[in-house]
Amino acid sequence: RRKLPYPPGPKGYPIIGNMGIMDQLTHRGLARLAKQYGGLFHLQMGRLHVLAVSTPDMAQEVLQVQDSVFSNRPANVAITYLTYNQADMAFANYGPFWRQMRKICVMKLFSRKRAESWASVREEVDSMVRAVMEKTASQVNIGEMLFALTRNITYRAAFGSLSHEGQDEFMKILQEFSKLFGAFNIADFFPWLDWIRGQGFNKRLMKARQSLDGFIDTIIDEHVRKKKSDKDNNKDESPVEIETETEKDMVDELLAFYSHEDAKNAFYDSQSTIKLTRDNIKAIIMDVMFGGTETVASAIEWSLAELMRSPEDLNKVQQELKEVVGLNRLVHESDLGKLTYLKCVLKETLRLHPPIPLFLHETAEDSVIAGYRIPAKSRIMINAWAIGRDPNAWHDPDRFNPSRFLKDGAPDFKGSNFEFIPFGSGRRSCPGMQLGLYAMEMSVAHLLHCFKWELPNGMEASELDMNDVFGLTAPRADRLVVVPTYRLNCPV
Ligand code: HEM
């Protein structure tokens, strides 16, 4: 294997390799390089091997054919520290611990059976619609409102209540975490230069984690106290009654697996049940907040922006809503299955604007793809943005055309059509997909059913800025501002 060549890629300099083109490590930059070097190309970043995957066949190779080798997560200094040493699910390496954490998350936190999360989507969408209603015929920053909506949904699902004071504090912590995750750190590329990192960065990391500890520890303590007092009050009642009496948030669900104050690491008890520590609980809550907030908000905002640029498609969706729901009542959950064109619009949005444009994986051992050598611990960047716009897989790929999904045999995003993987595919694919889709469908259906939408100040559709910003997600660079007019014959 060592005699095999690395995949093709731009020529680098001695020692630093391709670090001169660090600014190209975005979905757009890597897509440009892929045009020159192909669906699998190699960059050398200091000591790090980076492989960019940009075509459906190469994505299938890493996410399906050789998935057990390609399913680890890369963790830099900041990620390791801020996830309590990969004590969560999203950054844990593939293996028995990750499998257990994923099982808990899928069954206890994201499952359709956990009605509380789904109810909070409905209630928060209702309250957003009422807020828009109060501003009809004036300019509404719908982008800001959508980000607030998904923050409220995830915050409520995680902590049960919606204290605005607490939420502001928590959002500040999340923003600092996000910046630190993305901060350039020389030690990630040259470990022997770790000493340069400086005390400033270390202090920021420590401060961020202390803030999170202070915030979530208080919430965990409150939940533990409440659980104890519920138990004391219900001593004589049957356990079944206790279960149905209290609404459980995610902290409650996770506390059911909590071991005891002194445990340093997760462990299995005598019944082979995993026991979690406080660090595990905090790290999982951060996964939910990072995974479920910006992803969903940016997808909804992009779908509205694309529809504002395509009045014909906007008209088709609103006509469908008129036929399926009528104008005398609000959309119900049971209507969603019949809104075929709306679903096509959401799929087309996810194709053109996958909320997570680059998936980050790491190889567990040496491997070979297409005759090229891929060393262990290589960083793999799967470019879902480039794959969704691959001209060999999609006709007229840059055009927003939802009706392409009406055709028989059109690809679906469940993970087996590798030209369309906004939620990933295989082991590390998104466990929150159903919840995310539900929030998207409910919000877009309500907003388009209740209101007519226009751009402000006579702005032409072609003038709408469609640039994105690159980070963990790729939201619009400018929040979408629109003017709504109420269109129903009933009150909201
Ligand atoms: C439009 C909505 C969403 C999209 C497009 C999306 C997309 C993705 C993608 C592409 C991945 C990574 C795949 C990979 O690395 O191969 C992922 C992972 C993940 N997502 Fe989502 N997501 C969405 C909503 C959500 C929601 C609502 C939650 C939770 C409430 C969530 C939680 C997670 C978690 C925890 C992971 C890490 C899984 C693991 O590493 O095993 N996501 N998501």
UniProtKB/TrEMBL annotation:
CDD domains: CYP71-like (cd11072). It is a single-pass membrane protein. Heme binds at residue 430. Its cofactor is heme. One of its GO terms (molecular function) is monooxygenase activity. Its main location: membrane. InterPro entries: CYP450_84A, Cyt_P450, Cyt_P450_CS, Cyt_P450_E_grp-I, Cyt_P450_sf. PROSITE patterns: CYTOCHROME_P450. GO terms for cellular component: membrane. It is found in: Membrane. It comes from the Eukaryota. Keywords: Heme, Iron, Membrane, Metal-binding, Monooxygenase, Oxidoreductase, Signal, Transmembrane, Transmembrane helix. Belongs to the cytochrome P450 family. This is Ferulate 5-hydroxylase. It comes from Hevea brasiliensis.
